[in-house]
Amino acid sequence: QVQLVQSGAEVKKPGASVKVSCRASGYTFTTYGITWVRQAPGQGLEWMGWINSYNGNTKYTQKFQGRVTMTTDTSTSTVYMELRSLRSDDTAVYYCARSVEDYMDVWGKGTTVTVSS
Amino acid sequence: SSELTQDPAVSVALGQTVRITCQGDSLRSYYASWYQQKPGQAPKLVIYGKNNRPSGIPDRFSGSSSGNTGSLTITGAQAEDEADYFCNSRDSGGYVFGTGTKVTVL
Lengths: 117, 106
Fold this sequence. Notes:
The complex is a heterodimer.
Chain A: E1 3-6, E2 10-12, E3 18-25, E4 33-39, E5 46-51, E6 58-60, E7 68-73, E8 78-83, E9 92-100, E10 103-107, E11 111-115
Parallel strand pairs in A: 2-11
Antiparallel strand pairs in A: 1-3, 3-8, 4-5, 4-9, 5-6, 7-8, 9-10, 9-11
Chain B: E1 5-6, E2 9-12, E3 17-23, E4 33-37, E5 44-47, E6 61-66, E7 69-75, E8 83-91, E9 94-97, E10 101-105
Parallel strand pairs in B: 2-10
Antiparallel strand pairs in B: 1-3, 3-7, 4-5, 4-8, 6-7, 8-9, 8-10
Protein backbone atom coordinates (compact mmCIF):
# COMPACT_ATOMS: atom_id res chain seq x y z
CA GLN A 1 0.00 0.00 0.00
CA VAL A 2 1.01 3.62 -0.43
CA GLN A 3 2.89 4.85 2.59
CA LEU A 4 5.39 7.41 3.78
CA VAL A 5 7.73 6.32 6.56
CA GLN A 6 9.48 9.05 8.50
CA SER A 7 12.60 8.93 10.61
CA GLY A 8 12.50 8.84 14.38
CA ALA A 9 12.23 11.53 17.01
CA GLU A 10 15.09 13.98 17.47
CA VAL A 11 16.29 16.13 20.35
CA LYS A 12 18.52 19.04 19.39
CA LYS A 13 20.16 21.99 21.10
CA PRO A 14 19.45 25.57 19.99
CA GLY A 15 21.59 26.51 17.00
CA ALA A 16 21.92 22.94 15.76
CA SER A 17 20.46 21.40 12.60
CA VAL A 18 18.08 18.51 12.10
CA LYS A 19 17.51 16.35 9.03
CA VAL A 20 14.27 14.40 8.79
CA SER A 21 13.74 11.69 6.19
CA CYS A 22 10.57 10.51 4.47
CA ARG A 23 10.74 7.22 2.54
CA ALA A 24 8.00 6.50 0.06
CA SER A 25 6.69 3.11 -1.01
CA GLY A 26 3.76 1.64 -2.88
CA TYR A 27 3.75 4.11 -5.77
CA THR A 28 6.00 5.60 -8.45
CA PHE A 29 8.06 7.98 -6.35
CA THR A 30 8.97 10.42 -9.11
CA THR A 31 5.34 11.00 -10.13
CA TYR A 32 4.41 12.98 -7.05
CA GLY A 33 5.88 15.83 -5.06
CA ILE A 34 6.33 15.85 -1.30
CA THR A 35 5.16 18.62 1.01
CA TRP A 36 6.48 19.27 4.50
CA VAL A 37 4.11 20.52 7.20
CA ARG A 38 4.82 21.15 10.84
CA GLN A 39 2.67 21.43 13.95
CA ALA A 40 3.88 23.02 17.17
CA PRO A 41 2.43 21.62 20.40
CA GLY A 42 -1.25 22.53 20.69
CA GLN A 43 -1.10 24.62 17.52
CA GLY A 44 -2.35 24.40 13.94
CA LEU A 45 -0.72 23.13 10.79
CA GLU A 46 2.00 25.16 9.07
CA TRP A 47 2.97 24.62 5.41
CA MET A 48 6.77 24.71 5.11
CA GLY A 49 7.48 23.86 1.50
CA TRP A 50 7.35 21.40 -1.35
CA ILE A 51 9.83 19.42 -3.44
CA ASN A 52 9.49 17.82 -6.84
CA SER A 53 10.61 14.27 -6.13
CA TYR A 54 11.85 13.80 -9.71
CA ASN A 55 14.05 16.84 -10.34
CA GLY A 56 14.48 18.37 -6.88
CA ASN A 57 12.80 21.70 -7.67
CA THR A 58 11.63 23.31 -4.46
CA LYS A 59 9.25 25.95 -3.17
CA TYR A 60 9.71 27.17 0.40
CA THR A 61 7.44 29.49 2.31
CA GLN A 62 9.17 32.79 2.98
CA LYS A 63 9.34 32.20 6.71
CA PHE A 64 11.80 29.30 6.25
CA GLN A 65 13.78 30.48 3.25
CA GLY A 66 17.50 30.43 4.03
CA ARG A 67 17.02 28.02 6.91
CA VAL A 68 15.44 24.96 5.27
CA THR A 69 16.65 22.65 2.52
CA MET A 70 14.59 19.85 0.98
CA THR A 71 16.32 17.21 -1.14
CA THR A 72 15.34 14.06 -2.96
CA ASP A 73 17.09 10.73 -3.51
CA THR A 74 15.35 8.85 -6.29
CA SER A 75 17.56 5.77 -5.76
CA THR A 76 15.97 5.18 -2.37
CA SER A 77 12.61 6.96 -2.90
CA THR A 78 13.44 9.22 0.01
CA VAL A 79 12.96 12.94 0.57
CA TYR A 80 14.86 14.85 3.24
CA MET A 81 14.08 18.07 5.07
CA GLU A 82 16.92 19.84 6.86
CA LEU A 83 16.22 22.76 9.18
CA ARG A 84 19.18 24.78 10.46
CA SER A 85 19.79 27.25 13.27
CA LEU A 86 17.15 25.59 15.40
CA ARG A 87 15.29 27.62 18.03
CA SER A 88 12.98 26.54 20.81
CA ASP A 89 9.96 27.56 18.72
CA ASP A 90 10.97 24.98 16.09
CA THR A 91 9.84 22.30 18.55
CA ALA A 92 7.08 20.57 16.62
CA VAL A 93 5.90 17.46 14.86
CA TYR A 94 7.11 17.52 11.26
CA TYR A 95 4.99 15.71 8.66
CA CYS A 96 5.72 14.80 5.08
CA ALA A 97 2.78 14.35 2.72
CA ARG A 98 2.42 13.21 -0.89
CA SER A 99 1.29 16.11 -3.03
CA VAL A 100 -1.19 15.80 -5.86
CA GLU A 101 -1.95 19.09 -7.62
CA ASP A 102 -3.42 21.27 -4.86
CA TYR A 103 -3.86 18.70 -2.10
CA MET A 104 -1.98 16.20 0.06
CA ASP A 105 -3.44 12.72 -0.09
CA VAL A 106 -1.07 10.51 1.92
CA TRP A 107 0.68 11.58 5.11
CA GLY A 108 3.54 10.22 7.14
CA LYS A 109 3.01 9.61 10.86
CA GLY A 110 5.18 12.57 11.79
CA THR A 111 8.58 13.13 13.38
CA THR A 112 8.84 14.91 16.71
CA VAL A 113 11.68 17.40 16.88
CA THR A 114 12.43 18.87 20.29
CA VAL A 115 14.77 21.84 20.61
CA SER A 116 16.01 22.32 24.13
CA SER A 117 19.20 23.32 25.87
CA SER B 1 1.19 35.29 2.34
CA SER B 2 -2.59 35.34 2.66
CA GLU B 3 -4.51 34.02 5.62
CA LEU B 4 -7.34 31.52 5.90
CA THR B 5 -9.69 32.12 8.81
CA GLN B 6 -11.80 29.43 10.47
CA ASP B 7 -14.08 29.49 13.49
CA PRO B 8 -12.11 28.04 16.43
CA ALA B 9 -14.81 25.63 17.54
CA VAL B 10 -18.26 24.36 16.62
CA SER B 11 -20.52 21.73 18.13
CA VAL B 12 -23.14 19.52 16.55
CA ALA B 13 -25.68 17.09 17.93
CA LEU B 14 -25.25 13.48 16.91
CA GLY B 15 -26.90 12.92 13.54
CA GLN B 16 -27.29 16.60 12.75
CA THR B 17 -25.52 18.76 10.15
CA VAL B 18 -22.59 21.07 10.71
CA ARG B 19 -20.87 23.45 8.29
CA ILE B 20 -17.27 24.53 8.80
CA THR B 21 -16.16 27.62 6.92
CA CYS B 22 -12.81 28.90 5.72
CA GLN B 23 -12.41 32.52 4.58
CA GLY B 24 -9.59 34.06 2.61
CA ASP B 25 -8.81 36.02 -0.52
CA SER B 26 -7.03 33.09 -2.17
CA LEU B 27 -10.31 31.14 -2.16
CA ARG B 28 -11.64 33.47 -4.85
CA SER B 29 -9.15 31.77 -7.19
CA TYR B 30 -8.48 28.32 -5.72
CA TYR B 31 -10.50 25.55 -4.10
CA ALA B 32 -9.75 24.60 -0.53
CA SER B 33 -8.79 21.10 0.46
CA TRP B 34 -9.89 19.87 3.88
CA TYR B 35 -8.08 17.74 6.45
CA GLN B 36 -9.35 15.96 9.53
CA GLN B 37 -7.00 15.47 12.45
CA LYS B 38 -7.70 13.42 15.54
CA PRO B 39 -5.55 13.68 18.68
CA GLY B 40 -2.14 12.11 18.26
CA GLN B 41 -2.70 11.33 14.60
CA ALA B 42 -1.53 12.74 11.29
CA PRO B 43 -4.01 14.80 9.28
CA LYS B 44 -6.23 12.95 6.82
CA LEU B 45 -7.55 14.36 3.53
CA VAL B 46 -11.37 14.42 3.47
CA ILE B 47 -12.27 16.81 0.61
CA TYR B 48 -10.32 18.15 -2.37
CA GLY B 49 -11.08 20.13 -5.50
CA LYS B 50 -14.61 21.30 -6.19
CA ASN B 51 -16.18 18.54 -4.05
CA ASN B 52 -14.19 15.30 -4.23
CA ARG B 53 -13.78 12.65 -1.55
CA PRO B 54 -10.81 10.27 -1.39
CA SER B 55 -11.59 6.59 -1.31
CA GLY B 56 -12.87 5.55 2.11
CA ILE B 57 -14.23 8.95 3.15
CA PRO B 58 -17.96 8.70 3.92
CA ASP B 59 -20.35 10.58 1.68
CA ARG B 60 -21.63 12.58 4.65
CA PHE B 61 -18.60 14.83 4.02
CA SER B 62 -19.04 17.40 1.26
CA GLY B 63 -17.39 20.61 0.12
CA SER B 64 -18.54 23.83 -1.49
CA SER B 65 -17.23 27.26 -2.36
CA SER B 66 -18.66 30.76 -2.81
CA GLY B 67 -16.71 33.97 -3.22
CA ASN B 68 -13.92 34.06 -0.65
CA THR B 69 -15.37 31.25 1.46
CA GLY B 70 -14.89 27.52 1.28
CA SER B 71 -17.08 25.20 3.33
CA LEU B 72 -16.95 21.65 4.61
CA THR B 73 -20.32 20.14 5.55
CA ILE B 74 -20.87 17.03 7.61
CA THR B 75 -24.42 15.79 7.07
CA GLY B 76 -25.48 13.41 9.82
CA ALA B 77 -22.45 13.83 12.08
CA GLN B 78 -21.17 10.73 13.83
CA ALA B 79 -19.22 10.43 17.05
CA GLU B 80 -16.10 9.51 15.09
CA ASP B 81 -16.24 12.86 13.26
CA GLU B 82 -15.16 14.67 16.42
CA ALA B 83 -11.79 16.12 15.43
CA ASP B 84 -9.92 19.22 14.32
CA TYR B 85 -10.49 20.29 10.73
CA PHE B 86 -8.11 22.41 8.67
CA CYS B 87 -8.58 23.96 5.26
CA ASN B 88 -5.66 24.52 2.89
CA SER B 89 -5.29 26.55 -0.27
CA ARG B 90 -2.70 27.82 -2.67
CA ASP B 91 -1.54 31.38 -2.12
CA SER B 92 1.13 33.69 -3.48
CA GLY B 93 3.85 32.18 -1.31
CA GLY B 94 3.01 28.55 -1.86
CA TYR B 95 0.19 27.16 0.25
CA VAL B 96 -1.42 28.10 3.54
CA PHE B 97 -3.50 26.30 6.15
CA GLY B 98 -6.53 27.68 7.89
CA THR B 99 -6.48 28.34 11.61
CA GLY B 100 -8.43 25.16 12.33
CA THR B 101 -11.86 24.30 13.73
CA LYS B 102 -12.47 21.91 16.58
CA VAL B 103 -15.69 19.97 16.00
CA THR B 104 -17.42 18.50 19.03
CA VAL B 105 -20.20 15.96 18.52
CA LEU B 106 -22.69 16.12 21.38
